[in-house]
What does this fold into?
Amino acid sequence: MKVVVTGSTGLVGEALVTALQAGGHSVVRLVRSSPNPAEHRYAWNPDTGSIDAAALSGCDGVVHLAGENVAGGRWSDARKARIRESRVAGTELLVRELLKLDAPPKVLLSASAVGFYGDRGDELLDEGSACGEGFLAEVARDWEAATREAQDHDVRVAHLRFGVVLS
It folds into this structure.
């Protein structure tokens, strides 16, 4: 399969790319810096709304992991806006470009976060639990909602609600 991966230079992305390649899949990385088509690295920039459409052509699936690191600094109002926009705008751009393809991919796996559930104390939660309250819950809700248009066009979408990932 040809799999496009955003966030491929991060902790989870690097491990995923290695595993996909070991499984014999062709991996295309959408990167914000150092694109090199010879290395299957193509440019995208959610801030400017640009993406190298050649990277998406003929893809079977997309794994979208990109987003501002929530642990990368103090949460000022500006940083919170950057966290939200990096996820929502990036997802909207990716979905918009995928739907322009003659043959969109069959599946989009889009990262999200367990922050979707908010702080609910000792309440038992599962994948069917409603969205919680607070900044991270709102970001995750909007992030997941940004994939809706893909679902409306018969792309199977799954949200990967990660917790803290340590190496």
